[in-house]
């Protein structure tokens, strides 16, 4: 189909001339060391990139070693807000907005302020917003701080396979839904749409043969896929025009997602209210009325999954 016109981008700096959404690089990529209590994880329950860090923190028992601060799900023109805290200020730094911590670390920063972000209480600076690396850091560098019996989410024999699948998940699924939703031309949208559903078909077949993506145990790949799947029918199907099929129309993917949802650390950190209010209220170019839909019914996630 030929492009009829180009529409205004939700994030103009991340829109290519072709109309494709091109996600900005991560600004802060310093290493994070395994020092209990030194770092604070800033995250949003709405954001899939942040959600993966929250899940891994729970699975590995890092709650005391890595304090967590949750931002308001609705992001305004100044970015992520601390309105969930008393007086609307972060109790760790006194900031009103996460952007204050970014600019305090790099006064020349002009990009989009993102979560997750890791604050170093010793140096008083943001040391990482590198979401692809953070879960791996919790899984490897923070190993001395893991709870007894914590799962090995990044086992050495599977790392090459996990890394390869994670790359495919990011390109076609995790970021693929954004490439659909933030596309500003028909051709860019269609390319992302076809890649997304082709990958979901492959994953549906893969999960028909095994309980989790790499066999009988949960790995980092499952965390990354879950955070997109749990938002799919509530947000991406309609809001981002990813509407060839709903997640609930994939027997294996839907059962797999509900299996993970019922696993401690997954469903307990999933907040559909935060998710829907963030996407439908914050993305005003996509949803100018800012009406938040009432469905789908979250009780569907509690239905039997028939796996395991």
Automatic annotation (TrEMBL):
The active site is at residues 47, 178. The record marks 236, 279 as: Lowers pKa of active site Cys. Residues 155-279 form the GST C-terminal domain. Pfam families: GST_C_2. Gene3D superfamilies: 1.20.1050.10, Glutaredoxin (3.40.30.10). GO terms for molecular function: glutathione transferase activity. Glutathione binds at residues 80, 112-115. CDD domains: GST_C_Omega_like. GO terms for cellular component: cytoplasm. Residues 1-25 are annotated as: Disordered. This is Glutathione-dependent reductase.
